[in-house]
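Hi everyone, sorry if this is the wrong subforum. Our group has a chain we'd like a structural model of before ordering constructs, and none of us has done structure prediction before. Sequence below.
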Amino acid sequence: MSKILAEKLKKKIVDCIDNQQENLFALADFIFQHPEIGFKEKQASEHLIQFLSEGGFSIEKNYTGLSTAFRAVYEQGEGGPHIGLLCEYDALKNIGHACGHHLQGPAIAGAAMAVKKVLDDTEMSYVLEIIGTPGEECSNGGKNIMLEQGAFKELDAALMMHASDSTTTDIHSMARSEFSVVFHGKAAHSAIAPERGRSALEAAILAFNGIGFLRGHVKDDTRIHGIVVEGGKLTNVIPDETVIRIEVRSYDSVYLKSVENWVKKILEGASLMTGTTYSVEKIGGSLSKIPVRSLNKVLMDNAVAIKAPAIAPPREKTGSTDFASVMFHIPGSCIRVGFIEKGISAHSKEWLDKGLSDDAHQALVVGAKILALTVFDLVTDTRLLQKIKKEFKEEKMRVIQES
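Answer:
Right subforum, don't worry. Here is the predicted structure as tokens:
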């Protein structure tokens, strides 16, 4: 495709998003005003499904067995690039949409509609797949569950958007594992000789002490934290059961496994020292993302082209997200779009208060335009997509070899 034609079609994509922005605002406002927590986002998913269905996308509800997940697909021709647009729509419990997830689905839907409408007038072959991914804020995010059921793996690339305090991309994220541990002891009156009881709480305390010492023997970017969920009811009763939760994080998914093994040995040692038994259940986590800087660049080039607000250098290190689990398996990137003052943290009242603002609406439009233009680039420039996939493969190999 010639550069002149490409620029002409990109202009049409931008105009298409501008022309439908009032419908996108209404959709985002409805989701914001009807917040639903993870895996219970019934209204949000239904409204997004209806919007995409009316736009000509074929719909698969209850995707991968999750009642509020969905898959919307549009295919033109055969053998073209298979691009995924992922969106979240869960709110925070007792707070609401203080993370901007209400903007994601409408932005993704707007981008998808624009790409479809403009490319319908061409002979380009491609598959555009919109995937609704519930429960990102939960201990085990929906994308992890969906990955286990085979989602995402047919995609050549996956894209997302997220509201932020600047317009940027991310490089590295932390892999994360969370475990529930139950120590089982023997209850007794606290005044009776110690050998009559086996304190499950003491086992937990020993475990936390061991973890405290372990922190001095792991890589600097490793984090290990924990809480006591249940440690007893009365001071005069030696508790026969204690429940704790432990979270381990690292910027290296492979290295994280070795840290998990060390933590499990500490749990075993605490059990042996107290004569208790224990059980461990993994209840959540995510992998670290494989960064693809060339894909980040495509997003940022399009951000510059449409004069996105608060453009900033990429964030070198971030926290954990279930989208990183997807990005460990296929090339992916998330464009963060500035809508709030620099330094204000997500999950705060300030974010919630700006959820229906003009700035939030404009972030939706900006995100939709950046994503749509990036999809266009990936579909129409096969060499670009090949470059991105090659970089992803090489970067993943490097990460595995260095771990």
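For your construct planning: Residues 3-173+289-402 form a domain with the Aminopeptidase fold (CATH 3.40.630.10). The radius of gyration is 24 Å.
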